[in-house]
Structures are given as structure tokens and as C-alpha cells.
Design a protein that fits this description.
This protein is α+β, with helices and mostly antiparallel strands and about 140 residues long. It contains four helices and seven strands, in the order βααββββββαα. β4 and β5 form a beta hairpin.
């Protein structure tokens, strides 16, 4: 299983009045991790959009384990948990500097035509990308 690593320095603007990272900012970190994974596999999400396709999020599940605060650096580990004809499930861990897990998450995505939003198989859009996902995922 391939895991991608993305380091994130927590910015003050990401924290709430208690000095803790506001929960919605984890979604941004997940996107950063997913983008890094795609890049590590040799692809570019912007290129997919230029071809006329989008990969909307269908579902997000985050389990918050412990707080992250301003000044800390976290590591977002991202992998392809499951990949099928019309659905990709990404897995994530947000790891603190001491190695403890701050959060775990999963996001579910599909691929659609930009104009019609009709689902399409990645295999029909980009065979090499499809093969890379099939090879990198935990469960096909």
C-alpha cells in the first residue's frame, strides 16, 4: 500500500478562540493530502479538470482524537483505501509531531463529466491513472 505524506504547519488563522484548530480546517488538510497523493502517483488533478472532469466529494467522515494547536506541525498521511469503477475511497491520518494520531478520516469520491455531472469511469478517461490507482489501493 502506498501512503503519501504531506507536512502542514498550523497557522494562527486555522485556530478558534480556544487556540485549537477549528474542525473544518481538517477538510482543507485532507484535500492537501489527496492532492499530494495524486502528485506522488505522477498525475495532476488540474489536468483532469482541463480534460472536462471533476471528482466531487460524496461523503466525509472524520474522527477527532486529540487537539492540534497553533505552532504545531502535523503530517497528513493519505492512501487509497478502496477503488472501484465509479468510486474511490481515500483514507487519512493526521499525525502530531510526537507521533500521536490527531484525527483519522475517509472521503468518498466519484468522477463526473464537468458539463453534465454524469458519472464516468476513470478507466475510460485515463487508463494510466486508473492502473496507478488499482496498483496503489488497499482494496480493489
Amino acid at each position: 500500500m502506498m501512503k503519501s505524506i504531506k507536512s502542514v504547519e498550523v497557522r494562527y488563522a486555522e485556530t478558534d478562540q480556544m487556540g485549537v484548530v477549528y474542525h473544518a480546517n481538517y477538510l482543507v488538510w485532507l484535500e492537501m493530502g489527496r492532492t499530494q497523493l495524486i502528485k506522488d502517483l505522477g498525475f495532476d488533478y488540474a489536468g483532469l479538470e482541463q480534460k472536462g472532469y471533476l471528482s466531487p466529494v460524496l461523503d466525509v467522515s472524520i474522527q477527532y482524537k486529540q487537539s492540534v494547536r497553533y505552532g504545531e506541525t502535523v503530517t497528513v498521511k493519505t492512501w487509497i483505501d478502496s477503488y472501484s469503477r465509479l468510486k474511490t475511497i481515500y483514507g487519512y491520518e493526521v499525525i502530531k509531531e510526537d507521533g500521536s494520531v490527531a484525527a483519522t478520516a475517509k472521503t468518498i469520491h466519484t468522477l463526473v463529466h464537468k458539463e453534465t455531472f454524469r458519472p464516468v469511469s476513470l478507466q475510460k478517461v485515463d487508463v494510466e491513472w486508473h492502473e496507478a490507482y488499482a496498483k496503489a489501493c488497499v482494496n480493489v
